[in-house]
Amino acid sequence: MHRCLVCEIRDQSVCRAIDDEDLVVLAKSSKQLSLPPNTTLIEEGSAATAFFNVTAGTVKLFKSLPDGRRQITGFADVGHFLGLTNAGTYSFGAETVDTVQVCRFMRPQLETLLADYPQFERRLLAEVTDELAEAQEQMLLLGRKTARERVASFLLARMIHRPCQTTGEENRVSLPMTRVDIADYLGLTIETVSRTISALRRDHIITGTDHHGIRVLSPSRLRGLASGQENA
Amino acid sequence: MHRCLVCEIRDQSVCRAIDDEDLVVLAKSSKQLSLPPNTTLIEEGSAATAFFNVTAGTVKLFKSLPDGRRQITGFADVGHFLGLTNAGTYSFGAETVDTVQVCRFMRPQLETLLADYPQFERRLLAEVTDELAEAQEQMLLLGRKTARERVASFLLARMIHRPCQTTGEENRVSLPMTRVDIADYLGLTIETVSRTISALRRDHIITGTDHHGIRVLSPSRLRGLASGQENA
DNA sequence: GCTTGTCTTTGATTTATATCAAAAATCACA
DNA sequence: TGTGATTTTTGATATAAATCAAAGACAAGC
Q1: pLDDT tens, A49-74?
Q2: Same domain, B165 and B108
Q3: B164: domain range?
Q4: Are A142 and B137 an interchain contact pair (Cβ–Cβ within 8 Å)?
Q5: Does the C-beta of A211 come within 7 A of strand C?
Q6: A179 and A129 within one domain
Q7: A206: in domain
Q8: Tell me, in Å, how far CA of B139 is from C1' of D6?
Q9: Overall number of domains in chain A
Q10: pLDDT digits (tens, 9 = 90+) for A200-215
């Protein structure tokens, strides 16, 4: 009995491309790791030797400038595959946000899998295509949206992508990352993020005082804001 | 004698995945089109039925907000493949910048090609991976760079990617797009782009008065600026 | 070769967000 | 449970880039 066979998130990841009878190959190709918060998974510019499949928690992906300015390009959560690159080195860094579980594939094993299972490659293409569409959406946000629109877009995206109904509360949005991370993701400063969240609370669009979670009171107004419709 | 066999840019595009003897299949799967400047290739949100391979000229890809704000997410030139999406509709628009030649694939033909030629899919994965890396670099630009750094990055990227040494002039950069397009690509206004280019000229980092081309005098200073090293 | 419209540049002013500063809340750990 | 460190919030001020405005340069068509 190997772990891929009992993996609960298999159908949320590229691993669903592999049939049950071949799962043992997958299990042997990868190694499961559990990582504490703020662990470096990928060092920007280092040799691209490993690939990761996130099975629990959230990973932040980012690029930096020499003087320390940083742009988080995405948050990778359950099911996300990380590390693909055409160059021999990673063009981005990756760090855990909270406690994270990943399956790590080393390059030779991954290449064997890709060669042996065309459906695996097909799934990877679909995943990268999806990530590209998300990146384009984020470019629109970074280049053309106001601070209020950016924060609204962020909260909305998390509400839609991450239905954390486990608490029973309706429209609850969990924010495991710090304000610094949110600011670096939205191209703002922490002060602006904080002020904007406070303003949305004041306007009764969201509620909740917990720093790492809010509740959306008016999804429709949030949606309006996120798409730049108004200032309401 | 079909056109793919004599195609001069085949090895710059995904088509290099297809062997010479199978090229006739490729030629039959696609249709060559010649398009004047400012032609809409892809309407944002329309059904994704066609895919394009650019064989000459430059295409701009963009996303818009309801009130008309626009973000150009990339310029696709020779060899670029356009139109992939997981949803049934395009999440972005595409318009020609100058006179453009494309080979158009309709969805069923493309799917047949993908199924029959795994190397074709492999090439596509590499191309999308590359585009994602570029998108991440652009997110860093949009979220964290100053106007001066953005313009420097843009000019530098075009100098490196598009060596237009045909004119004989060293380090010549061609800018077929308008200031509006450059501004919408860099997340700035046309006035800021214009002022910044003038400032770089004043600082003897670039030269040339032609609106659609400049010459880089100091690639090293431009590189420094683009990576945020200084203000020189 | 002139005229008309478009694109680009330059200038003056405004503004959204950054920066600087400090208080309040939360967290970690003894 | 208390204490110091960290994170978040709020406030005052500064600033880079946007906006508003107009002049110059260029391109296309007659």
Answers
A1: 999 999 999 999 999 999 999 999 99
A2: no
A3: 146-226
A4: no
A5: yes
A6: no
A7: yes
A8: 29
A9: 2
A10: 999 999 998 888 889 9
